[in-house]
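Title: Prediction job returns without error message
Component: structure pipeline
Severity: low
Priority: P3
Assignee: unassigned

Description:
Job completed but the reporter wants confirmation the result is attached to the right record. Sequence as submitted:
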Amino acid sequence: MNKTKIICFANNKGGSGKSTTCSNVAYGLHLLGKKVLLVDGDMQANLSLAFLPEERVLALAEGENNLYAAVQKEADLAGYCVPTEYEGLDLIPASPLMSSLEYELYPKRDREFVLSRCLAGVRREGDYDYILMDAPPALGGWAMNLLTASDYLVIPVEASPWGLFGLANMFDFYRKACEKNPLLSLMGIVVTKVDVRKNYYRQTMETLGELRDVHVFQTCIRMDSSVEWSQDNSKPVMAYKKSSRSAKEYMSLTEEVEEIASGKKQH
């Protein structure tokens, strides 16, 4: 059995904290001594910007060393890994050109598995304990590629009046992905951008609690200005200010994720 676990962070609703959650869980796994590869599957490149300065991200996006270039060529992603400042934590950056992937994937053979083929070599080599992927806020052929290449799906949900909007569509999309990738499992829902003083936080938790056979992570991520400051400095919040509330919460979430992925805890 291959030791590399692939986890996709996805939600068809924008603003759910998807990229922030993916980047901080990745850094948390790094702190736990795991080797991690990040795959930025969103043309907005927020995951890339969480680890690299803007000018570096733009240069990579305009060149050939990015996810778009690799997928276009159906190339082995091992040749596209960019090291971050954290040893054992690498990144395959995004490109704005990924907006055309929906069209470019259409004529390809087994188009839902292009990314799986690109990742096959990396996974076979087993140099990474985890591959974490950030999906775009859309449900289409490219998002399907990300899910068919994954072992687990994590859905970040914003604790807001519209936070659960479209979640049913996300579940339907997940079920379709499972038909193509029977090994895919919904690891759980993580509630983000929480303000415990607001009624809609309680409403969100009550609604999620009514879902059958869906794991909701115990750790919720509360609103914290440290997250915005860390993003402004192109760092995960745990690297920027490890004493902050959000840093501690993301570390707790990381431990939950690792327990499930390693089989220590059922979900």
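Comment from assignee: result matches the submitted record. The CA atoms of residues 175 and 184 lie 9 Å apart.
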